[in-house]
Amino acid sequence: MDWHLLIAAGVKIVVFVFLLTLPLVAMAVWAERRVSAAIQDRVGPNRVGPMGLLQPVADGIKFLLKEDFTPAHVRKTFFWLAPTLVMVPALLTSAVLPFGTKLFGEPMVIADLDVGPLFIFAVASLTVYGIVLAGWSSNSKYPFLGGIRSSSQMISYEISLGLSVVPLIMLYGDLNLGHIVREQAHNGWTLLPLWGEGLSVRGLILAIPMFISFVVFTTAMFAETNRLPFDLPECETELVAGYHTEYSSMKFALFFLGEYAAMIVGSGLCVTLFLGGWSLPFGWLTPADTAVDVPFWQGLIHIGVFFAKVIAFILFFIVIRWTLPRFRYDQLMKLGWIYFFEIAVLNIILTAVLMWLLAPGSAA
Amino acid sequence: MTFLFYFFSALVLFGGLGVVFAKNPVSAAFSMVISFLGMAALFIQLDAFLIGVLQVLVYAGAIMVLFLFIIMLLDVEEVEKRKLSLPTVIRAGGVGAALVVLISTVLMRGGTAGQALPKLVASPEKSDVLRIGELLFGTYWLPIQIIAVLLLTATVGVVVLSKRELK
Predict the structure, then answer these.
(1) pLDDT for A337-348, tens place per residue?
(2) Residue B97: what pLDDT?
């Protein structure tokens, strides 16, 4: 066993997951409250620290110090297990996201798997257990309904989510997220093929099915993370608070943070697949290939670019949440099965036909 | 990493025992999920990333969720403890023993008995996804298409039959 690899992986896990992603979760909660306040013409939390920036710390202390109340009628083992099952998969999926090029000669990805997107979908599909078990183990009506809604919703949208990525994988011919990002850095982002080989008739035409993919993927992502136009599992007006009605203090906080962590990893995946990951536009500061050593400052810039894109995407998530009203449950299912599923399948066929017509070797 | 192999094998067995012995159907289903996850980890240890990930994606992530869904919808309460009668134990033990004998016979007498199995070589330029894809959509494209149509027919058939019953 190579101790060097083990230690490097450990450091990357600690830095990326615990020092970058988790604080980002806290900041996302703060941003959510401030942006929603701005949209609703309120002030929002602005007392703790400058601009209320320390509000998440205060909230965290509150959650930790609150009484951890377990109702008498719950099924204890699963009641305790459920919150962790929401949080852990959300953080686990971040393992395959390439969040930079290199720092100290180390590639900036925790696990450089050849099945990146599949790994993310596989682990993310386990999140549903946390919610289902929370709903079931709470042993009361509203959480149960929330759990049932959530599981059917997640199963339905997982299909569109998976199918929407297929055209992109066809285009890049690779399932390694690191390779996909490097390809985008050199030949134009998936949605913005304006430099390198992407700036050609073929690249620009193929950006059309990629855009359709992007729309389906993002919408399915909203549904998968139970974010507002699709937050039926915890819909306050119908289900009190859905699957986490019976939870209090830190166990509730884990559900809450798990949702945000899933949102951040989802944004990270979307940025990686469609918006060029760590790369700057027009191939600026892009290392020629993996063998080239990247200067320290460039490595830092790449990480910064990745997180800037992720933060921009999170703000987009937040603005959508406070702009669109909630769907009805039958509308949600109809949207998933009748529209997005079909659009995703047709998009795969469209991409295949376009790739066949515009193949570099053919006369067309 | 033999330690990891034993750890995940123990997890698979632990999950399997849980499925058999859990009185609560939800616990049983969850034990099965644990067993699937252990199995996926074993596949990944063999460098079979695609199979490992599909194990989680399809079995743990989709099929078992549907199982749980049905169990919860039917609201199956805990099964009351059944008394084990001697004939049941003998019959079950017999079936189990027969299975063990069968599998071990195949392993002992099979074509590869006594020889070391060829080592799986992870080729650096081709990932296992690529190789499986080439086999499925290159060499065996026709059987795959036929199976796909069969599955589609079965799915459509189920929908038609269940909808007719409702009317």
Answers:
(1) 888 888 989 999
(2) 93
The angle that helices A55-65 and A22-39 make with each other, rounded to 10 degrees, is 110
Q: Establish if A350 touches chain B: CB-CB under 8 angstroms.
A: no
CB contact under 8 A, A1 and B1: yes
Q: Which residues of A touch B61 (CB under 8 A)?
A: 121-122, 125-126, 128, 158
Q: Is B16 on the interface with A (CB under 8 A)?
A: no
Which of B30, B73, B129 shows the shortest C-beta gap to A114? Answer: B129
CA-atom Rg of chain B in angstroms: 21
Rounded CA gap, A170 and B144, in Å?
19
Which ipTM was obtained for this model?
0.77
Helix (H, G, I), strand (E, B) or coil at A271: helix
**Could you tell me which chain B residue has the CA closest to the CA of A135?**
B72
A126 at the B interface (CB within 8 A)?
yes
* Window from A145-159, A176-190, A350-364, B43-57 with minimum mean pLDDT: A350-364
Buried b (16+ CB within 10 A) or exposed e, A68-95: eeeeeebbeebbebbbebbbbbbbbbbb
| pLDDT greater than 50 at residue A111 | yes
- For residue A74, give Cα distances in angstroms to A111, A130, A240, B5: 38, 15, 17, 36
Which of B50, B69, B73 shows the shortest C-beta gap to A115? B50
- Residue A74 Cα, gap to closest chain B Cα (Å): 14
Chain A environment of B66 (Cβ under 8 Å): 155
CA nearest to B75 within chain A: A136
The pLDDT of residue B165: 62
| Distance between CA atoms of residues A19 and A307, nearest Å | 13
- Give tens-digit pLDDT for A199-234: 777 777 888 888 888 888 988 888 887 777 777 666
List, in sequence order, every residue forming a beta bridge with A106; answer none if it has no partner: A103
CA distance B66 to A89: 19
| Residue B83 CB neighbours (<10 A) | 6
How many contacts does A have with B, using Cβ atoms within 8 A? 71
Structure tokens at A181: 């990002």
- Angle (CA) A59 A63 A64, round 5°: 120
Say if CB A179 and CB A166 are below 8 A apart: no
- Sort A167 into a burial class: Cβ within 10 Å, 0-12 / 13-18 / 19+: buried
